[in-house]
Amino acid sequence: MSDFPVIRTPRLILRELVPSDIPALFAIHSDAEAMQWFGTDPITDYQQAEQLLALFASWRTLPNPGVRWGIERQAEPGLLGTCGLCKWNRQWRSCAIGFELARAAQGQGLMTEALEAILDWGFAHMALNRIEAQVHPQNCASLRLLERAGFVREGLSRQAGYWLGAHHDLVQYGLLRADWPSPAPLVARFV
Question: Where in the numbering of this chain does the N-acetyltransferase domain appear (predicted)?
Fold first, then answer.
């Protein structure tokens, strides 16, 4: 992966995360209530936000690379959240998906729009056959989002996650290329 793949949707720009996003990353990832399902402890200082930015950027250079996009509105700059495809297994043609959105941006269909765009991109540009997600069973919003996107519940991974000092079960979801009917109303433009 060389140039960062910027994606434009009707309302959003999915773009590379940059150092000026650190305050917004900190605000999102330090919100304990919003991050209770994310799979890591909330961050507590700007240095951790800087490290998170560096981690997301490093995904593109890993042996099994991935991409983490910053999400912002086209009409109103400012980071709203992130979404990404990671743990790309080229031989198996599979990867995992992850996402988070600031509470103020939730409930507006923004993550649905972002995920549809990156799913299209993953199937088109990474030659994926399968995209996986693991979600806490009580994270109802993410479970509904994945199901609306066509992901199929495949089972429960017992105590697969550990954060906030406890082990957590995770629901396993999968989406196959054959199940993805690239949604017609969304016209994502890959820049």
Answer: 12-178
> pLDDT for 61-80, tens place per residue?
888 889 999 999 999 999 99
What CATH number is attached to the domain comprising 11?
3.40.630.30
Enclosing domain of residue 19: 7-131
Go through 175-188 and write b for each residue having 16 or more CB atoms within 10 A of its CB, e for each that does not.
beeeebeebeeeeb
172 close to 134: Cβ distance less than 8 angstroms: yes
Q: Say how many Å lie between the first and final Cα of the chain, rounded.
A: 14
Q: How many domains does the chain have?
A: 1
CA distance readout (Å), 98 to 44, 76, 128, 154, 185: 21, 23, 16, 17, 23
**Residue type present at position 97:** I
Domain presence at residue 153: no
Mean pLDDT taken over the chain: 90
pLDDT confidence of residue 2: 59
Question: Is residue 164 in a domain?
Answer: no
